[in-house]
Amino acid sequence: MFNSFKNYLVGAALILSPSLWVSNVWANDVVQMVHNADQYRLEAKSAKVVSLVSLYEHHQLDKTRKYSVYTRPNRESLVLFKSEVEAGQKMLMLGDNYWLVMPKSRRPIRITPMQKLLGEASVGDISTLTWSEDYSATLVDVESLDIDGETVEANLLSLVATTKGASYQKIDLWLNKQSDFPIKADLYLRSGKLAKQAWFKAGERNGQTRVTAMTLLDQIQPAKKTVIEYQEITEVELADKYYNPAYLTRNALAEL
């Protein structure tokens, strides 16, 4: 009888408090939502991502840059700058530690998480490809979005950084309610300032729906826009030596 009364009280509380119901129902599912969203962007644990970055100003194409990004578990990635004007530059990210290697330089340069976001190429945006490793997420609301004239129901999640090296301190992320495909994201700096808004483009890769491009609208310099196209994603696992800053300074890595 006591258990029946207890269940009655719990049920009544959930009816009277929708927010309590939402927090209980979605608490376990939100982690899976973020994981699913990551899978649309990078399905392999270790991969090579070839990215073409187009930089626009006042709606006019200003320049393009190309990068090869090698990722592997434990928040480790190596970025090779492939455009002629940046050829030979490398960026290595090992957890919360970052190095920039310049051509002919004898020593790697330690940089901060903020510095990897600076510059026209938005290296921080192309190199940090997963949310589930750097953020904790909570469900905020369910919203209706107008996407090209079509109404789409989306779960709005609030992501808060759990690591020092996260590119952004906070992210508001909208996921398709039916599929968890990422639709858009508001990206906030540690100061709380809204830096960029990202929109994700759906396409097909290897017969599966995937994020094939991301458009970043600069909220600090509204005239600027960055489009990152993921031209190729293949499952590749580099040897450990490539994730050593000292090795990068001694080798051009022309083979990659």
UniProtKB/TrEMBL annotation:
Keywords: Lipoprotein, Signal. Coiled coil: none annotated. It comes from the Bacteria. Residues 75-250 form the Uncharacterized protein TP-0789 domain. It holds the Pfam family LolA_like. The keyword Lipoprotein applies. The keyword Signal applies. This is Outer membrane lipoprotein-sorting protein. It comes from Vibrio aquaticus.
